[in-house]
Design brief:
This protein is about 0% helix and about 50% strand. The protein is built from no helices and 11 strands. It has strands spanning about 5, 10-15, 20-25, 35-40, 45-50, 60, 70-75, 80-85, 90-100, 115, 120-125. A hairpin with a 6-residue loop joins strand 4 and strand 5.
């Protein structure tokens, strides 16, 4: 059974930083593309960042470019999201998701990810 467990969320002041982690089990981690998505109250889930199998290819939502960094450690079956210069509009539940196929054109499509975790809350106070 596949499990994705996010951690590292919390309450932070605007301009602060957090690092989210997502530990995966029950799947061959190195063969899965990983993505971070987020969902704010009353809004649809949106793509934040994605990373290819080896970590050499990364993709970001425009509004987080230069502030967020996605990375992965295949030896630890873990994907990370380093978030800096956080803004109140970054407040959301952040989800880790996994899929097999790498296609840059569809990285942002939540419907194409097969597995996801329970999410971790990130709250940025102004």
């Amino acid at each position: 059974q596949v499990h994705l467990v996010e951690s590292g969320g919390g309450l932070v002041q605007a301009g602060g930083s957090l690092r989210l982690s997502c530990a995966a089990s029950g799947l061959t981690f190195s063969t899965h593309v990983m993505g971070w998505f987020r969902q704010a109250p009353g809004k649809e889930r949106e793509f934040v960042a994605g990373i290819g199998w080896s970590g050499g290819s990364t993709h970001y939502k425009d509004s987080v470019k230069g502030r967020f960094t996605i990375s992965r450690d295949n030896a630890k079956n873990t994907v990370y999201l380093k978030m800096m210069n956080l803004k109140p509009e970054d407040t959301a539940v952040y989800y880790c998701e996994a899929r097999l196929w790498y296609n840059p054109a569809t990285m942002k499509d939540d419907q194409l990810y097969r597995y996801w975790g329970q999410g971790t809350q990130v709250t940025v106070a102004s």
